[in-house]
């Protein structure tokens, strides 16, 4: 589980997972991708949410291009499937993951960010998919996840023209749900993780696992899946306690935004 380019820290019930390869702009080597996979596989049961961020001036420069050797088609496919398996653990792991973005969020770095559940970007963030100009293709699930954030037309444009989105345009396009001043993405991500960690774990799990699947289902199946999850969630002891807390005046009301 230990890898020199990945630092894992537990702060109460939040796991902070940091790419620590700043000198190489947190480029994702095969070893680092496998370490990420293992990190999400082995989170302690006490963890309720995770924050992922990157050391140095950039969140992540994507695939480690120095490792791109001569691969045949089968090896290339398996390499991509390895990324899929690792980022699947991020998206469909045990707890919600909040990405704290800054600087470059490019190529595989954007694929990693798009596997997270919430993205907080600071004002220095920029997004790009240089694969188009490097003669390669996305291979870390980007063609599935990124259009869900920004639409297929914007992704096509990015890959065809090398277009780079700055932090503000990126937030408007749908890359990030939060845009914060430079240098504050981690603090905001941690604050959100602490808020997320207060929810019933079953609700968080249901949200992460059910919502993206329901989005893929025909409406009739989606309604049915929703009813199953609704039934399971409301039958949990935690739901009963929380509802009683509200009805008896012990729980916070929703505040006007
Ligand atoms: C790297 C990588 C990398 C930096 N692989 N070594 N990704 C890309 O095409 C993006 C390539 N990187 C860049 O465009 C720039 O490095 C950045 C905009 C991210 C940052 O620029 P800068 O000026 O801050 O840093 P730098 O001087 O370019 O890089 C510092 C060092 O990191 C340098 O090594 P050094 O030994 O000369 O110090 C760089 O070579 C190294 N470095 N990025 C390897 N990506 C599952 S498929 C996914 C497909 C993709 O992700 S393709 C997109 C790859």
Automatic annotation (TrEMBL):
Record flagged with keyword Lyase: yes
SUPFAM superfamilies: ClpP/crotonase
Domain of life from the UniProt record: Bacteria
Keyword Transmembrane helix set for record: no
PROSITE patterns according to UniProt: ENOYL_COA_HYDRATASE
PANTHER family: ENOYL-COA HYDRATASE, MITOCHONDRIAL, ENOYL-COA HYDRATASE-RELATED
Name this protein carries in UniProt: Crotonase/enoyl-CoA hydratase family protein
